[in-house]
Amino acid sequence: MTAAECSASPGALSMSSARRANAGFALVAGSSLRRSARMTLAIALSALVTMAGRREISYMRRCMNKVAIRILGVDPGLRNTGWGLIEAAGSRLSFLACGSIQTDVEISLADRLASIHRALTALVEKSAPHEAAVEETFVNRDPQSTLKLGQARGVALAALALKALPVSEYAANLVKKTVVGIGHAEKNQVATMVKMLLPASNASAPDAADALAVAICHALHRRTRARDPS
Hints:
Elements: H1 3-7, H2 10-66, E1 69-75, E2 80-89, E3 92-102, H3 109-127, E4 131-135, H4 143-162, E5 167-170, H5 172-179, H6 187-197, H7 206-227
Parallel strand pairs: 1-4, 4-5
Antiparallel strand pairs: 1-2, 2-3
Helix pairs in contact: 3-4, 5-7, 6-7
């Protein structure tokens, strides 16, 4: 250390140290401010992305509710398998066609099931539905009848699935409650409500009306799921 340095006043040394300390503090403060700004920017960008994603999901849901789709409803049975085709676009439902697949009681069970399969396959190929809905089997007093109904229902499900259709299943009570408002409604009540909801429908057989009710039930429930997927 030189004599000049040794002779420097304590006050001058203190001022130099203070300047260096202030410079260091300013550097640290500037770095902290930059980090804080970057964090704030990242949070803001994340919020914008989240908001954009929510808007996109909301838009997709609205589009899903508005795009018209064809729904095939099926009321399975060994003697008569009802079917009904509707178009759903948001809350608007339109009747397209309906009918009943009847099997010959004189032929074997296997042939009757095969005829149901062939008829449903041809119907899907002709009408090109986007989705299908099938009524679930209910247990009645006759175990043999329940078994045959279950077999017809299994064939119907297989025929639809083999055509790569998304298939939903609904209990009979849920279909009635959705369409009529009463879970144990009679067939004539179901037919009346179907006619009210689909004024152009011409279902002459109860099975066809029931199938249209299944399609209506699916249309209403898929809308609910689209609005609230949770």
